[in-house]
Design goal:
Elements lengths: L9 E4 L2 E2 L4 E14 L14 E15 L7 H5 L5 E8 L11 E9 L14 E7 L2 E5 L2
Antiparallel strand pairs: 1-2, 1-5, 3-4, 4-7, 5-6, 6-7, 6-8
């Protein structure tokens, strides 16, 4: 299996391509585990048993802050307290088995730090989107 180095990933937030402003993305994909253990020996004997619960998605993105029109601040600020859609691909090439598209719909942005930095440092904003539904497309 080939290793991949993210150098030209695509990231869009609310249908705005912010790929040139992002330098880190983490998509966490999991399901809640719901315990189904019963007194019955057929449910697994002495151990706990579980089933899949609700999908639990989160996505962390670090952006280089930019106050220009259609850039980071103009896109992110109005989304605080609302749900939106995120789209990520490992490279800018067409979607395929080796370059899947991950789409998170209905993900919620609770907070945003529009100004963050010290003297002589790059101004960054780190966002955490939570909830929603994740779909992976390969065609």
């Amino acid at each position: 299996m080939a290793a991949i180095v993210l150098t030209d990933a695509t990231i869009s937030v609310n249908a705005v391509d912010l790929s040139t402003k992002a330098n880190k993305v983490v998509i966490n994909y999991e399901f809640d585990s719901v315990e189904t253990t019963t007194f019955s020996a057929t449910s697994g004997g002495a151990g706990h048993s579980f089933t899949k619960g609700l999908q639990n998605i989160s996505c962390d993105i670090d952006f280089l802050q930019d106050f220009a029109a259609s850039a980071v601040e103009a896109t992110i600020f109005p989304l605080v307290g609302t749900s939106t859609t995120l789209v990520f691909k490992p490279t800018q090439a067409a979607t395929s088995v080796t370059n899947p598209t991950y789409t998170i719909t209905g993900t919620f942005l609770a907070a945003h730090t529009p100004v963050n930095g010290s003297v002589g440092e790059l101004s960054m904003t780190s966002l955490k989107f939570t909830g929603g539904s994740l779909a992976k497309t390969t065609v």
